[in-house]
Amino acid sequence: MNEKKLNQLFEDYLNGTISPEDERLLESFDAKVLAENLDKYTHAERAKERVSSKLNTAVGRSTKTRKLWAYTVRVAAAISVFFAFKFIFLQPTSMGVVEEPALVWVERKTDWGEKLNLILADGTQIKLNSGSSIRFPKAFTADERRIELSGEAFFDVARDESKPFIIQSDQVETKVLGTSFNVQAYEDQRHISVSVLTGRVEVASLENKVFLSPHEQGVYHRSKGNVTKGRVDIEKILLWKDGIIHFEDATFGEVKSVLERWYGVNISFASKELAQCHLTATYANESLETILGSIVYAKKGMQYRMDDQKTIIFSGKCTDN
């Protein structure tokens, strides 16, 4: 008799619809026989143990009782097997191992001259600056909220004391529970900076770590591998979020990097000396042409032109008014 036929006999017996002929057939199956052939019906070890226990109990009981009870014991044991089948095969997931779902990662990038606003699954708000990339899980399922950043972004982190928010930027980890701060980690720069607006932030490298409070900045020096901290004007650092470019005694080499990222252009200097020229200025949502005109106006001995490859070339001398 195959498994399908045996199951049908069990169901007919429980429903009270079994025929006399089938009832005699079911009676012919001794509980001990079923136990000895258990491998034919179950494959899960835990299921075998449970069913065997029921059958052994029934067999032990049947050898001690009168023949009058033999039929009852055999059917009872068979019914035990039937229910074991139903539990095991109709609910397979309940017997399996529950696995953690794999993280699904999302990556977003901005080209030169672009900015992007993001809201993560936990409610954290991010503003991504030009020429940056960020990688984060679609949902935070672990005991931490870990993301990766290259470039610059401002974070307003949703507070969750049970899951610290961690930003990995090269060799630097920035860890918070819920606060707002700015991270600048462009790959072409010699340092990575973390500037805090609200809350408390931990910035760590392989060498050391520092704790930052509002209006403090941690700077990771790529050449030394350590982190230092100091006071900053956080409002000026965050002007970029509102479309404002601010230069505070910046070298033209630094001005070059900012304008390239902001407007998606290439800038070069006719001489190395020009790259060391300094500039202090603020531009609020100005066009590139307006900024270039302002620079050569402030530096009377300087000119600029655009070559055939759309590269802006500064030449002349760096002389202030």
Features:
321 residues; alpha+beta; Jelly Rolls; Phage tail protein beta-alpha-beta fold; 3 domains; 13-stranded mixed sheet; 9 helices; 18 strands; 31% helix; 32% strand; elongated
Commentary on this structure:
The structure is a single chain. The protein has helices spanning 3-15, 20-27, 31-36, 45-64, 70-90, 234-237, 252-263, 272-275, 288-298; strands at 105-109, 116-119, 125-128, 133-137, 145-156, 165-169, 172-176, 180-185, 191-198, 201-204, 209-212, 216-221, 226-231, 244-251, 266-269, 278-284, 302-306, 311-316. A hairpin with a 5-residue loop joins strand 8 (180-185) and strand 9 (191-198). It is built from 9 helices and 18 strands. Helices cover 31% and strands 32% of the residues. The model is unreliable at 30-35, 37-48, 57-70 and 85-95 (pLDDT under 50). The chain has 3 domains: 3-95, no CATH class; 105-237, Jelly Rolls (Sandwich); 243-316, 3-Layer(bab) Sandwich (Phage tail protein beta-alpha-beta fold), CATH 3.55.50. Helix 4 runs antiparallel to helix 5 (70-90).
